[in-house]
Amino acid sequence: xxQRQASPRSTDAQRIIEAAIDLVIAQGFxxxxxxxxxxxxxxxxxxxxxxxxxxSGLVLAVGEHALEADAVFHQRFFGAVAGLPAxxxxxxxxxxxxxxxxxxxxxxxxxxxxxxxxDTDLGEARHDLMRRWEAMREAAWRTYLATVPDAADFxxxxxxxxxxxxxxxxxxxxxxxxxxxxAEGLGALVDRALGRDDGPAPATFWYREHLFLPQAPAAGxxxxxxxxxxxxxxxxxxxxxxxxxxxxxxxxxxxxxxxSTIAYHWPDMRRFVVDAVWHxxxxxxxxxxxxxxxxxxxxxxxxxxxxxxxxxxxSINPQAEGFYTRYARLIASxxxxxxxxxxxxxxxxxxxxxxxxxxxxxxxxxWPTGFDLTRLAxxxxxxxxxxxxxVASATGIPLSGATLKTAATQLVAQQEP
Length: 417
Description:
Layout: H1 8-27, H2 34-41, H3 45-52, H4 55-79, H5 88-103, H6 108-118, H7 127-145, H8 155-172, H9 176-193, H10 202-209, H11 226-241, H12 248-255, H13 261-265, H14 269-283, H15 303-310, H16 323-340, H17 345-352, H18 357-361, H19 375-395, H20 401-411
Helix pairs in contact: 1-2, 1-4, 1-6, 2-3, 3-4, 4-6, 4-7, 5-8, 5-9, 7-8, 8-9, 8-16, 8-19, 9-19, 11-12, 11-14, 15-20, 16-17, 16-19
C-alpha cells in the first residue's frame, strides 16, 4: 500500500490511486483511461506515466493498495468476533454479513478485486498479486474455522463459493427472492463445514417451479444465417469483455454489415444482448448438462471418470478455455453490469435462482453412485466450481484433478456403503 508522506510525489501517487479506484467502481478497468484519470486528478498523463509507467503498472499499484485495504477489512471483520465459537448460527450470520459488507458501495477495494478477477487482458501481470490476495482471504477464514474441530480445511471450498456468491450479492442484495434462496444455499454450505446433513431445499425448488427458462436463441437457425452470425459474434465479445463490451457498432464491424442489421432481426439492442448472453451459455454447454449423458452405465461412474469429465470444463488455457471458466466470467460480468443497469437484475436472478440445477438433474452417469448429491449439495458445488475457475484464471494456477476430487468430497457427502 502506498503510504501518505510529505513528498509531492507520494501525495500525487496516493491521489491518483484513489481516483483510479473511483473510476474502476464506476466502469471497471477495461474502460479506465489515463486521460480520464488525469482529468479526474487535475494532472497531465505524463505525471501518471512517470509515477506508474504504462496502464498495467497503474493497475497493479491500484491492486496492491486494494489488497492492503482488504487485509485490514479481514483483520477487523474477524477481530470483532475473536473467541466466539463458530456455531451454525454464528457462522451463517458471519457469511451473510461478510457478503453484505463486501457488496456495499463504499467497499471500493472489493470492486478492484472483482475487476482483477475478470480482467484477462492483464495476463500474467496479475498472477502474483491475485495469488497473494486469495491466500490472504483463505488464511483469514481458516484461522476462524480452526475454532471448530475438523473445519479448518473447509476454508478453501468456502472462500471459492463466496467468490461466486459475492458477484450475485452485489447485484441482487435487497431482492426478497434472492435473499431467501441465498440464505438457504449458504446455510447448507455452513452445515457442510460443520459436518451436518443437508436439509430440504424448499426455496430452491419453489423458484424452479416458477422459473421460465428461455429456449436456445440459435435453435432452428441455419448455420449460415445472419442471425446466428450476429449471435456468435456478440457471444464471443461478451465472453471476452463482458456484457458492457457489446455494442451495435462492435458487432456490426466484425460481421461486416451495417448497424441497422441488428434492428432488422431484433426489436431493440437490449433484447439482442440478452439473447446473446443465453446463446453464449447454450452454445458451449457440456453434454452432461445439456441432457446428453455420457455413453456409459451410470452404475460404473467413479470419481476418476468424473474427474476426466470435469477437468476440461475448468481449463484456463486461453486457446481452450473450459465451459465453467467462461460461464463464471459471464455471470460475474452480468452481475457487475446489473449494478449499473438494474433491469439486468432479473437476468442475474434467473442465473442464481436455480444454481446447481444442471448438476443435480443430470447427475446419473456423471457423479459416482456413492455421492449423496442433494439439491443443496449441487448448489454448493456449482458455486464452488465457478468461483474456483475464476480464481484459477486470475492466479494462473490450473485446477488439478486432485483439487477437483478433494472439493467434490468436501462439498458432497458420501453415502454409507
